[in-house]
Amino acid sequence: xxxxxxxxxxxxxxxxxxxxxxxxxxxxxxxxxxxxxxxxxxxxxxxxxxxxxxxxxxxxxxxxxxxxxxxxxxxxxxxxxxxxxxxxxxxxxxxxxxxxxxxxxxxxxxxxxxxxxxxxxxxxxxxxxxxxxxxxxxxxxxxxxxxxxxxxxxxxxxxxxxxxxxxxxxxxxxxxxxxxxxxxxxxxxxxxxxxxxxx
Length: 199
Hints:
Shape: elongated
Helix content: 55-70%
Order of helices and strands: HHHHHHHHH
C-alpha cells in the first residue's frame, strides 16, 4: 500500500484506502458531480496513480460507489416491503418506491441513469444492473418458486423491472405519475405481465 499523500492522514490498510476513495466519490456524487479519477485524487491529496492502484478507471470507481450504496438502498427497501408476499404487489411497490427514492439516492441512480462516462444505464441489463435487480427480488418476502416463477422467469422479471425503471427515469411523463396514480398505472400494466410470466 502506498503511504504518501492522503492529505496528511495515511490509511492503515488497502481496505481503508478503498473506503476513503469511495467516501470521496460519494461526497462528490452527493454534490451532483460525476467525478473522475483526477477529481478523487485531488480531493484525497494523492496522485492519480494511487487511485488507479485500486480502481482501473472512472467507470469501475463509479460502479463500485453505486454498488456500495445499492446495499443500503436494498436493505431499506426490503424493510419497507416486509410482509408483502404477493408477487405483483411486491414488484409494483418495489418499482414505485425505487422511482420515488432515486432522486434522493444519487449514487444508486448511477445504476439506472444514462451517462456518457459511467455507461451503466446504457447497459440497463448489464451484470451490475441485473445484480441490483436480483438483490431486490431476493429480499422480497415472496416465495417465487411457489408463485410459479422458475429461475428463467425470475431473470426475465428482473429485466422487465429494470427496463420499466429506466423508462420512467428517462421520461417520467408530463405530468409525472407518482403516489397512488403511479401504483394504479403499474398495477394495470405491469400486474398482467407478471401473471403472464408465471410458468
